[in-house]
Structures are given as C-alpha cells and as structure tokens.
Amino acid sequence: MPTQRQQEEREYRRRQILKGALVVFSKTPSENVTMVDIAKESGFGKATLYYYFDSKEAIVTELLIEGWQDLWVCIEPVLEASNSSKQIFIHVLQTIGEQIEKNRSLYEFLFNAPAHMPSHGEQPPEWKQYQVRLYTVLKGLLDDGMASGEFPHVNPQMMMRGIGGLFHGLFFLGTKPQKISKEEIEMLLNGIFNPPTEPTKTHEVK
Amino acid sequence: MPTQRQQEEREYRRRQILKGALVVFSKTPSENVTMVDIAKESGFGKATLYYYFDSKEAIVTELLIEGWQDLWVCIEPVLEASNSSKQIFIHVLQTIGEQIEKNRSLYEFLFNAPAHMPSHGEQPPEWKQYQVRLYTVLKGLLDDGMASGEFPHVNPQMMMRGIGGLFHGLFFLGTKPQKISKEEIEMLLNGIFNPPTEPTKTHEVK
DNA sequence: TTCCTTATCGACTGTGCGGTCGAAAATTAG
DNA sequence: CTAATTTTCGACCGCACAGTCGATAAGGAA
User: Fold this and answer.
1) Using CA atoms, how far apart are residues A101 and A185, in angstroms rounded to an integer?
2) Would you tell me which CATH number, out of the four given (1.10.3210.10, 1.10.357.10, 3.40.50.300, 1.10.340.30), belongs to the domain B63-117+124-196?
3) In this predicted structure, what is the pLDDT of residue B194?
4) What ipTM describes this predicted complex?
C-alpha cells in the first residue's frame, strides 16, 4: 500500500495535469484540444495522463465539477442574506463576476466549453446540475421579485435569456478581457429591471 | 458546353445541398456535422457533394456569405433613414430580430457556428467582414449617440458587449425558440440606454 | 543485492472523417 | 445506333486523435 507521501504526490500530479489542461483550454478552442497538448503542457507523456485519469472526458468533467463547486461556495452565502429578491439577484451576478475576474480561464472554460464536448450520449453529465441550479435559483428570485413588484411584469423566461446573454457578453465577448465593475453590473441590470415606461422617443438633442 | 437548362439544374442541385446542410446544422452541433450527414440529408452520395463544392468549408462559407448578404439587404435601408442614432440602433436590432424569426436555422447558424469552424489558419474568412461591419456600424451609432447625448456616457466597448450578449441570449439561449417582439427589444434596449440614475434600492413594495 | 509496487512513456491500434479515384450510370449530341 | 459529356457514388487513402500495451525505470522494503 502506498505511503502517505506517495498519496500526496500522486494527488499533486493530478493537480498538475488539471492545471495544464486548463492552460491548454484557455489557449486553444476547446474542440481542438488534444491529449498530447495537455500532456506536453503539464510535462508528462501522453500515456501517463491515462494513468491518472480514465479518459479525456474525465479530465474535463473534473475541471467542470471543481469549478462549479468553487463557484457555489461563493454564491451560497449571498442567498442566505435577508435582502430583497432584487438585491440578491444583483448580488449573485456581481459575485459571479468577481470570481470570473479572479480566474478568467477557469470560468471561460466553465461557461463556454461544455457545449462543445462530445458528451457520450448518456444522461446529463454531473456538472450540468450545478448550471441548472444556478438557472433555477435566479429564475426563482426573478419570479419572487415580480410577485412582490420589484421587477416589472414581463415574460420571465425572456428576462432570463436576456440577462444571461447580457452577462455572458459582458465578460466573454470580444478578444481581450475587460474588467467589469460591480457598479456597472448593477447599473445595467437596473436598467433592464426598471425600463423607462415611456420610451424617450426622439430624445432631446441639445 | 452545357446548355441553359443544364446550368439551371446544376444550380438547383447546389441549392439542394446547401439546404440540406442547413438542416443538418440545425439538428447537430456544428462540430459534429459530417459530409456524410449532409449527403444523406440532401439525397446525394458523399462524393457527389465534392462534385459541386470544393470542400466542406466551401459549403459552410457559401451558407455564411449568402446569409450575411441577405441580412445586410435588410439592414441597409434602415441605416439610410434620417433618424436619431438611437432610433436607428434600435431599429437595426429589431430588423435583425425580425429576420431571425423568419429563418431561425439560418441565423442560428450565422451567429453560432462560425466560431467552431476549423478555419484553415489563413487570413480572416470572407464572411467575417460582414460581421465586423455590423459591429462597426452599431458601435458608430453608439458613439454618435453618446456624443449627442442620446446615450449615457459609459464605456462603449462594454455597452457593445452587453447589448451583443443580451441580443444573442434573447434569441438563441434556451432550448425552445421563443418569439421576441420588437417592443420587447425596444424596451430592454431603452432600459440599458436610460438606466435609472439613482438605482431604486429597496424598491417600494406596496 | 533481490523483489515488488508505483510511475513513465514511446510506439502501436482503432476509428472517424475529409477528401480522392475510377468506374459506371445517365444524359445529350450527331 | 455510337460517341462525348455530365453526373453519381462506393470504395479507398491519409491523417489526426483517443485510448492501449508492454517495456522500462524509479523507488522502497527485505
């Protein structure tokens, strides 16, 4: 049986591989990432990767699950706060934004890569549940907020799509990443949440 | 030399192939679309596709270019109108939305697929120019509108990302497509353009 | 030292897919 | 009819890549 130190080193090497994988994923469109790339980046031979992981998908899955779990650790306390639905909603998105800034490559991977993964035709992968949960929680906040009059009464589905897209665009559109402040997020969301009821047609052009 | 009718039939078969390709692309994640799929869908043998097109990329490119050109035919007149920058901006997006509703699979392809294409390491592909042009035009309207006070003075880059994402989300996020009215587009954009200067903290809950 | 477990990796296999080839069918021309 | 041309396609080729194998090393434990 392996000693304590051996176990630790083994775990350390796994981490190295995952780290290398993330680097590769941040440099290469996810559909072009090969095991050889990851092997080279993390300083092992290709076959060695298979000594630590069952498959390419296993690596991806582990990255995704770890990433989502980390994110949820940050989100959960925000949900506990006894604020209005609207405040919580905004705060959740701000929190996610904060995490993205801290670890861009990870979250770019989390939010962009999954769609293009082979996904072995099976039932929905484990990491997906975290994504669904996020959607559900936000949608719930939106519904509650609409019921209590904090949000305008418009199609909540549409709202979710719009906000999801807006958020994604802010952080991931364009070539060079750009810092988005919490205030900017709040401003844009407030704009969507409190649209000017009478659209300012032909705004004054002094 | 081929007769008139032969030419026409040849052209017709090309169209059939393109049509079939679009069907396949609308059913399958673009990275998994194979030539055999397209061949089967359009009712030809695989080798026949190569009689009409040079490569898989040629098919994709032709779809993209045609699609973008059609779109621009709709956009151009909107730009001619002598309205305020803001009105034109909104109207352009409404027009695009309208086109999307008319031909979802085409525009889903236009706006989603390109990123995942092999893109033979060469200079930017031809269809890209149309995309850049759209970005440029919208950005220009945004800049003008800011200069004339129609839009708030915030980072225009960020604004573009946000609006781009918002729009993309509205039409393409989620599983089942949903109709988005022109009024809804206008409302959301107005919300972003005219954010409540004093965020309605703890909105009144009558 | 020898024995055994853990770790590493180059070379190989299998497969899926873009693209080609050459033969055959269909169409047109004379 | 025959000959020339256009169209169709199954079978094959080459390559890239996920995954495997067997040989080799590197480290204990005795």
Assistant:
1) 13
2) 1.10.357.10
3) 77
4) 0.88
pLDDT, mean over chain B: 90
Look at the alpha carbons of B145, B150, B154, B159 in this order and tell me if their dihedral is positive or negative: negative
For residue B55, the one-letter residue type is: S
Q: Which two tokens stand for residue B133?
A: 């042009």
Domain with CATH 1.10.10.60 in chain B: 1-53
- Distance set, CA B150 to CA A84, A110, A118, A198, B147 (Å): 32, 37, 46, 15, 8
Question: Would the CB atoms of B158 and A186 count as touching at under 8 Å?
Answer: no
Q: What is the CATH number of domain A1-53?
A: 1.10.10
Strand C positions closer than 7 A to protein CB: 5-11, 16-22, 28-29
Give Cα separations from A22 to A11, A31, A53, A66, A96 (angstroms).
Answer: 17, 13, 15, 12, 19
Whether residue B70 is predicted with pLDDT greater than 70 in this model: the reply is: yes
Mean pLDDT per segment of 10 residues, for chain A of length 206 residues?
73 97 96 97 97 97 97 97 94 98 96 72 83 97 94 92 97 92 94 67 37
Is the Cα dihedral B52, B132, A29, B174 positive or negative? Answer: negative
Q: Closest CB to B169: pick one of A164, A191, A193.
A: A164
Measured CA to CA, the distance from residue B185 to residue B120 in angstroms comes to: 37
CATH of A60-193, one of 2.40.30.10, 3.90.550.10, 1.10.645.10, 1.10.357.10: 1.10.357.10
Q: Which uninterrupted H or E stretch holds B72?
A: helix B56-80
**Protein residues bordering strand C (Cβ below 7 A):** A 1-2, 6, 9-10, 13, 44-48, 51-52; B 3, 5-6, 32-36, 46-47, 50, 55-57
Distance A110 CA to D24 C1' (A): 39
Q: Quote the CA–CA distance of A73 and B11 in Å, as a whole number.
A: 58
Q: How confident is the model at residue B1 (pLDDT cuts 50, 70, 90)?
A: low
